[in-house]
Specification:
By secondary structure, the chain is α+β, with helices and mostly antiparallel strands. The chain contains twelve helices and 19 strands. The strands form four sheets. Strands 1-19-16-15-2-14 form a six-stranded mixed sheet, with helices on both faces. Strands 3, 5, 6, 8, 11 and 13 form a six-stranded antiparallel sheet that branches. A hairpin with a 2-residue loop joins β9 and β10.
Length: 455
């Protein structure tokens, strides 16, 4: 009986055939018109892509670079804008800082995707600006590493990773949209015995001094408590229970110098923490590197808007940078018309954060692909995305930095791969490549200050 050949009615066979055809058509239409929104988050840049390659053309020494930065007449790539006012608020805040008319730091918020997660690019900009205008502290870091390759230059950190439930807005979104400034929430339940620590650097030129640790967490019904230690001395217990959900901040002062902050859960309720800010309390520059792996700019809409703006305002930024395009550029089915509309909404949210903050869009990198002939060529979408981001930035009142053109335009990632600046996935830069872009961006920001701030 089980060996009998099954006979299917002709009508059933044709029904399955047409159902398959129509299903495939609907799937392709969804990709085309909705921009492939199910597209998976970008993968981690491998160690080879970030650290191992050595550029054939070495970077300038710091002394050479900083000497040149004193007066930049022809930056590698200028910042573009429709109106001078789109960058002048930031430029004038640097001017006031340089001339001693500003006592509080000039803070920069730099949102980015996986290209930013190692802090090589943003760390380079931070280093140059702090050498020029003063080191006011490292800025914001996530509570612990949500991805193994997440790293901040000038900060050391760690945690009992398996005790925290990590919720980035990209891969594990929350219904309430409350992610703190950095786009990632760290949650623990009763009995989890969760711990985390962050400290100033013990090596290198960056991040060796702190005076204030600023912790952010969520007050909520049923919230538990956690103890705060600095340099192995208990400072206080923070209770997070409250009638409604609201983000809170607690500043812990230490003696100016090297220091270590530890957070220990008391296992008595729900906890949701976000990150820690490190500042010196001195005039200078603070550069918050806010990287979210797998991020697309339009996914920032998953934030609760009022909450996100409140967290940005808390930092009192002079400049907010958006640099997201690696994932969009890799999506050949991206619906650019819909993308422009969604991207404009995000930029308007950023612009509405504060009158004293300039807005800067850093365009996408070129991406390479294998050609049928065997060589490398450029993908088509990054160039199209570059133009779309530029136009939306100008329409909304943001400035624009053309990374694509700075790299060399069409075919540039292929050249970068052969010279050690581009990674093996043809999307991410290597460590040297990231530092090169960081140098260009720092140079462009200094040129904007010298052109639109000093006068």
């Amino acid at each position: 009986m089980w060996n009998e050949k099954v006979q299917y009615p002709i009508k059933s066979v044709w029904s399955v055939f047409w159902f398959t055809i129509l299903g495939a058509a609907a799937f392709l239409a969804n990709i085309y018109f909705l921009g492939n929104r199910w597209h998976p988050a970008d993968r981690a840049p491998t160690e080879t892509q970030i650290f191992s390659a050595k550029a054939i053309s070495p970077l300038e020494t710091d002394a050479e670079y900083l000497f040149k930065a004193e007066r930049i007449t022809e930056p590698h790539q200028e910042i573009e804008f429709a109106n001078e006012s789109d960058i002048s608020a930031f430029a004038m805040s640097l001017r006031d800082l340089a001339y001693g008319r500003r006592n509080k730091p000039v803070r920069i918020l730099h949102y980015g995707d996986s290209i930013l997660t190692t802090d090589e690019l943003s760390g380079r900009v931070r280093y140059v600006l702090q050498r020029k205008f003063g080191d006011a502290g490292h800025g914001f870091v996530l509570l612990t590493r949500p991805w193994q390759w997440y790293h901040h230059l000038g900060v050391e950190q760690g945690a009992t990773q398996d005790k925290w439930h990590i919720r980035p807005f990209t891969s594990a979104p929350l219904k309430d949209g409350l992610y703190g400034l950095g786009g990632v929430a760290f949650m623990a339940q009763r009995g989890k015995n969760a711990k985390a620590w962050v400290q100033t650097a013990t090596e290198g030129d960056q991040g060796k001094v702190v005076r204030w640790f600023d912790i952010s967490w969520l007050e909520q019904p049923g919230g538990g408590s956690f103890d705060v230690f600095t340099d192995d001395v208990k400072r206080k217990t923070i209770y997070t229970d409250g009638p409604v959900k609201k983000v809170r901040h607690e500043k812990i002062q230490v003696k100016l110098g090297q220091s270590r902050l530890r957070i220990l859960s008391n296992n008595d309720g729900l906890l949701r923490l976000f990150g820690v800010i490190l500042e010196t309390g001195e005039p200078g520059v603070v550069y918050d590197s806010l990287a979210i792996n797998g991020a697309r700019a339009t996914a920032l809409a998953r934030y609760d808007v009022a909450h996100w703006q409140e967290e940005m305002r808390y930092r009192e930024p002079s400049l907010i940078i958006l640099m997201m395009g690696a994932n969009e550029g890799a999506n050949k089915f991206l619906n650019l018309k819909q993308y422009r509309e969604d991207f404009a909404k995000i930029l308007r949210t950023v612009k509405a954060t504060g009158e004293n903050a300039s807005c800067l869009v850093v365009g996408p990198l070129d991406q390479a692909t294998r050609k049928e002939t065997g060589g490398l060529g450029s993908k088509k979408m990054p160039a199209r995305l570059n133009q779309a981001q530029r136009q939306v930035a100008f329409d909304v009142g943001c400035a624009f930095f053309d990374t694509y053109e700075a790299m060399g335009g069409d075919g540039s990632m292929a050249k970068w791969v052969t010279t050690g600046l581009g990674g093996g996935d043809f999307i991410h830069p290597t460590k040297s490549g990231a530092q090169t872009i960081g140098n260009w961006l720092a140079e462009a920001l200094l040129h904007a200050y010298q052109s639109y701030g000093k006068k």
